[in-house]
Design a protein that fits this description.
The chain is α/β, with parallel strands linked by helices. It is built from 13 helices and 20 strands. The strands form four sheets. Strands 7, 8, 9, 10, 11, 14, 15, 16 and 18 form a nine-stranded mixed sheet that branches. Strands 1-6-5-2-4-3 form a six-stranded mixed sheet, with helices on both faces. The longest helix has 22 residues. The chain is elongated and about 80 Å long. The two termini are 31 Å apart. Bound molecules: ligand BES and zinc ion (2 copies). The site of one zinc ion has 5 residues, from strand 10. The site of one zinc ion has 4 residues, from loops. InterPro entries: Leucine_aapep/pepB (IPR011356), Macro_dom-like (IPR043472), Peptidase_M17_C (IPR000819), Peptidase_M17_N (IPR008283). This is Leucyl aminopeptidase. It holds the Pfam family Peptidase_M17_N.
Length: 483
């Protein structure tokens, strides 16, 4: 269940409300309703003491006051408002608030801060339904209605569409392998398309074999369950682009490492998240379609688990990929690049305007910049990369560009095949990118390695714990600005 967002023309009397105040506020605006003198003095004292979140309990209802932050950029001010939304959520939960009004008195244009606060609140309120049988755990009072005074109805609906996309991605990531294998994942993508309004086609094992997708088939060899390759297409009547944008998402529904088996603690144990890229692609398509963004966008998600069973592919194997290139497998745990390579080569047939792939690809990326950012690299122009970084700053899913210098190509040389899939001990995120580059031919391309931020073992503000849905907000913003 999620929160209903609505605009309100005015704040009703005795409603529980949060007021956003300008940075540096030391006194309350005079016209604030039903604040008796004692409360007024209390708030004034709190403001003077530099409190950023103040609660006044009127017993029948509550008033909260959030002071906008002083930060060097508007984006950082917005991010602080999201975080305030997160902090406010804890207060609302304790007070069992189910309905809240938001009134923006901050003086920022177009209720941007109110919307950021609402975003942080809603993203915090998300909870994975899970599989608990204890009904009591579901009974707790929850925030169900948010009214934003004076907000633009369209903007609020758009935010709602994006949030639904993030929640869909989070749900998919949080589902374990025994609830979401490759076929079930594909069915979920089709269901999302039915609901939001985009077309899906699921290629099954027979079709994947006929296409000779050697990377996807090799990774799937050790699995008792077949792979899928899902094509999502959102093509609205009024699309402003002649050539489609293509998003490719890694859909490894569980990564054991295969015969190059991962150790369990803090490694294999979280690998249900290895389809976070595919989940994000689904979430972005969902949000674009829900919000009728006039852009032709295609999503490609190759999916399988990576297991050591039966006929599992082995270190030393040489694969012939969909593109025709040969790959020497030196480590079966570097499986993501193998399935993405086939999807990237497949993407060419759409003659794309631009291709972005999203993948929990390397521990190296996570070690380099942690959960704080997204590692990017590719062949896109400087302008395109700059636009992506701008979107990253706007939504606070920040993008850091890594180099793709030609010397790194040496890292994936093979004695007996065109390339190897392992790279060296250093620069592992980059050699993975250099591997993908060999298949991302015929269009501008960006690779996003989300191994750091995709899945959190401990809660981090409004990003919560578990699947974060990272890149849904980033790519929605980026694509919307292309339309
Ligand atoms: N799925 C992992 C990468 C990963 C690590 C995702 C941590 C999320 C959190 C990927 O398939 C993998 O195992 N990569 C190897 C590659 C190596 C063998 C070249 C890695 O990063 O260790
Ligand atoms: Zn792996
Ligand atoms: Zn993986």
């Amino acid at each position: 269940m999620s929160i209903q967002l609505a605009t309100a023309t005015e704040l009703p009397q005795h409603a529980t409300a949060v007021f956003l105040l300008p940075a540096g506020t030391k006194e309350l605006p005079q016209d604030l309703q039903d604040l008796h003198e004692a409360a007024r003095q209390y708030v004034a004292a709190q403001l003077a003491a530099d409190s950023k979140l103040i609660t006044v309990n009127h017993f029948s209802h509550q008033h909260y006051f959030v002071v906008a932050a002083e930060k060097p950029t508007v984006h950082l001010v917005a991010e602080a408002a999201r975080k305030s939304g997160h902090q406010l959520h804890a207060q609302l939960k304790a007070a069992k608030v189910t309905e809240l009004y938001v009134q923006d008195l901050s003086g920022h244009p177009d209720s941007t801060l109110a919307l950021a606060l609402v975003e942080g609140l809603a993203l915090t309120a998300y909870q994975f339904e899970g599989y608990k049988t204890d009904e009591k755990s579901k009974e707790a009072a929850k925030l169900t209605h948010l009214h934003v005074v004076g907000a633009d109805e369209k903007e609020l609906q758009e935010l709602d569409g994006v949030l639904q996309g993030v929640f869909l991605a989070r749900d998919l990531i949080n589902m374990p392998l025994n609830k979401l294998n490759a076929e079930q994942f594909a069915e979920r993508m089709a269901a999302a398309g039915e609901e939001a309004g985009f077309h899906t086609e699921i290629l099954d094992l027979v079709r994947i074999e006929a296409l000779r997708m050697g990377g996807l088939l090799a990774v799937n060899q050790g699995s008792p369950e077949p792979p899928t390759f899902t094509i999502m297409e959102y093509k609205p009547a009024g699309a402003t682009n002649a050539k489609p944008y293509v998003l490719v998402g890694k859909g490894v529904v569980f990564d054991t490492g295969g015969l190059s088996l991962k150790p369990t603690p803090a490694s294999m144990d979280m690998m249900k998240c290895d389809m976070s890229g595919g989940a994000a692609v689904t979430g972005v398509l969902y949000a674009l379609a829900k919000n009728n963004v006039p852009l032709h966008v295609i999503g490609l998600v190759p999916a399988t688990d990576n297991r050591p069973g039966g006929l599992a592919f082995a270190p030393g194997d040489v694969l012939t990929m969909y593109s025709g290139l040969t790959v020497e497998v030196l480590n079966t745990d570097a499986e993501g690049r193998l399935i993405l390579a086939d999807a990237l080569a497949f993407a060419r047939k759409y003659e794309p305007e631009f291709v972005v792939d999203i993948a929990t690809l390397t521990g190296s990326a996570a070690r380099a910049i942690g959960k704080e950012g997204i590692v990017a690299m590719g062949t896109a122009s400087e302008d395109q990369m700059a636009e992506l970084k701008k979107s990253g700053n706007r939504v606070h899913e920040r993008v850091v560009e890594f180099p793709m210098w030609e010397e790194y190509a040496d890292h994936i040389k093979s004695d007996i095949a065109d390339i190897n899939n392992l790279g060296k001990a250093e620069a592992g995120a980059i050699s993975a990118g250099k591997f993908l580059e060999r298949f991302a031919i015929g269009y501008p391309w960006v690779h996003l390695d989300i191994a750091g931020p995709a899945y959190l073992l401990a809660p981090d503000s409004y990003r919560g714990k578990g699947g974060t849905g990272t890149t849904v907000r980033l790519l929605y913003d980026f694509l919307k600005n292309r339309a």
